[in-house]
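Recall the central idea of this unit: under ordinary conditions, the amino acid sequence of a chain determines the structure it adopts. In this exercise we apply that idea directly, starting from the sequence alone.
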Amino acid sequence: VNEHDYERILPALNSLGTESGDESWFGLSKETSGSIAGPRVLLPLLYTCFHLLYDADGVVSRVSNKALKCVVTTCIERAKDEDLDELSRNSWIKFIETTFIPSLKIGIMTKDASIRRSFVLLFSHVARHFG
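Accordingly, the structure predicted from this sequence is:
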């Protein structure tokens, strides 16, 4: 009951860690059936990835870390995309500011040094891309 289904979770996280495709962060946020999805639909996946950083299994936490780094890259690419209108570009920046950064702050306060290290590395990744 408490074990991960590695055959399902690792491929899903790996596909989030790619920069293109229908199962990437941007691919999952695309418009479907005439309604604009945007980055808000990614919240459950984002929070799941943050939760998996706390996992004792190094493989799951590393793949989750890679997926979270990719969402930062995706957000900065969408924010600079000239094909999108201003409101759409700003929604990607707000996504990082209102969901990603607060989750990082919480993770940095954890007592476990190895888990905290993952959050610090993610924070430095965000600073490099948005700094």
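The helical segments are 6-16, 25-29, 43-52, 58-80, 86-108, 113-130.
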